[in-house]
Design a protein that fits this description.
Layout lengths: L2 H5 L11 H8 L2 H8 L6 H8 L5 E2 L14 E3 L2 E3 L3 E3 L5 H4 L3 H12 L3 E3 L7 H7 L4 E5 L4 H15 L3 E5 L9 H6 L1 H6 L2 H4 L3 H5 L2 H9 L6 E6 L3 E3 L4 H6 L7 H8 L4 E6 L2 H9 L4 E4 L13 H12 L4 E5 L5 H9 L4 E4 L1 H33 L12 E2 L7
Parallel strand pairs: 4-13, 5-6, 6-7, 7-10, 10-11, 11-12, 12-13
Antiparallel strand pairs: 1-14, 2-3, 8-9
């Protein structure tokens, strides 16, 4: 076992929450708060996690459970686990391995990885790094020309699906990033950087890795025709200039013939519109509480969307997943699978690829134990009969 593996093994890390102090100690405050924080007062960020407390279990006791089957079939793919690794932008700032490390870990675990447009590694390298399915999460940054180029590259590289995020007409105001000088550290002048440099200099191990990795990465998957690679500067402005609309799906389908997933659905109306537009799956998501604060928790929005879909397309959910019990509750409420973002990103920030492996291991072990305690031998058999839901949710 390597030093990094030992640092996140039990008893140092027993649950996902145990990664947070390790990550906080290893990476600069600006990078940690970018990962850890949310929009405005972070109400939705907190509610995403808290809401799971409102749903309790209804176990079947005195049931002999043999082998537990955690596998699911989503988008025509057989996965060993009912959760995929969600897109997390700027992952390379958390650890040099970034997206490649996360994809490798997902592949070893037999599950899928979703690569963010805002990534520091080329999509070809990420696809080559994983033995499992890899999906490309699309922002329209750089305009249609840049997006079409990324779609073509993803198809050639062998990506399995396209995930179109629809909840970013602008970037939410993440107050921690402003206080920590995230923008100044990334794109400011030396004079602008000076007030924020102590937090970087106080993490010499991270700084050494960062400089050895070549410093600030650009966005190698956003190639603007006639201009080249988009620099990692003011992403907020780039998003505001590339708001996705339902009309964009037509030309996206012209360039991508594989499965399309819409990420960022919170209402029955948007779920039905997604079906009309021909997508094969949607993810119930409030962007991890990072966009509009005051949105409902993803788990709270899930039943409405599941009811509207009526099994016509697959439904995923992301937001607030920290334990295997959280995954089970989402599956009981109708999700076909869930996406985990911060749960593995904390591990990546704490210990690189070894941390992602450990995060997946924790969630897998949690899942199997929870199913055994429920008296259920397969995630395919989970339904609402295994949970108590507040009466207010039934309205």
């Amino acid at each position: 076992m390597t030093k990094l593996q030992r640092s996140v093994a039990s008893p140092n890390v027993v649950c996902i929450e145990d990664f947070r102090p390790i990550a906080r100690q290893r990476i600069p405050k600006s990078v940690f708060d970018y990962l850890d924080g949310g929009a405005e007062g972070e109400i939705t960020l907190r509610e995403n996690c808290r809401i799971f407390n409102d749903v309790t279990f209804r176990p079947r006791h005195a049931v002999a459970v043999g082998k537990v089957n955690l596998g699911v079939r989503v988008l025509g793919l057989d996965l060993a686990l009912p959760f995929l690794l969600a897109p997390v932008g700027y992952s390379r700032l958390m650890h040099p391995g970034g997206e490649v490390s996360a994809a490798r870990a997902a592949g070893r675990a037999g599950t899928g990885y979703i690569l963010s447009t805002i990534s520091g590694h080329k999509l070809e390298d990420v696809r080559a790094g994983s033995t499992g399915p890899v999906f490309y999460q699309l922002y329209l940054m750089g305009g249609r020309g840049a997006a079409e180029g990324a779609i073509d590259r993803a198809r050639t590289a062998g990506f399995n699906a396209l995930v179109v995020t629809i909840d970013t007409p602008v970037s939410g105001i993440r107050e921690r990033d402003y206080r920590n000088g995230m923008k100044e550290l990334i794109s400011g002048t030396l004079l602008q950087k000076i007030p924020f440099l102590p937090q970087v200099l106080s993490r010499p191990g991270w700084l050494f890795d960062y400089l050895r990795d070549g410093g600030l990465p650009g966005l190698p998957n956003v190639i603007i025709p006639g201009k080249g690679e988009m620099p990692l500067v003011d992403i907020n402005a780039a998003l505001a200039e590339s708001t996705p609309t339902w009309a964009d799906l037509k030309w996206i389908r012209e360039h991508w013939k594989g499965p399309i997933v819409i990420k960022g659905v919170l209402t029955a109306d948007d779920a039905r519109r997604a079906i009309d537009e021909g997508v094969v799956a949607i993810s119930v998501s409030n962007h991890g509480g990072r966009q509009l604060d005051g949105l409902p928790a993803s788990l709270r929005a899930l039943p409405e969307v599941v009811e509207a879909v009526q099994g016509r397309i697959e439904v995923f959910m992301d937001g607030g997943i920290r334990r295997g019990t959280d995954i089970v509750k989402a599956l009981c409420l109708g999700a076909n699978a869930v996406l985990c973002g911060r749960a593995y990103a904390y591990g990546l920030a704490a210990a690189g690829e070894a941390g992602v492996d450990r995060a997946i291991e924790i969630l897998r072990t949690d899942l199997e134990r929870t199913l055994r305690l429920l008296g259920c031998d397969s995630v395919a058999n989970l339904d609402r009969s295994y949970v108590n839901v507040p009466k207010s949710w039934e309205a």
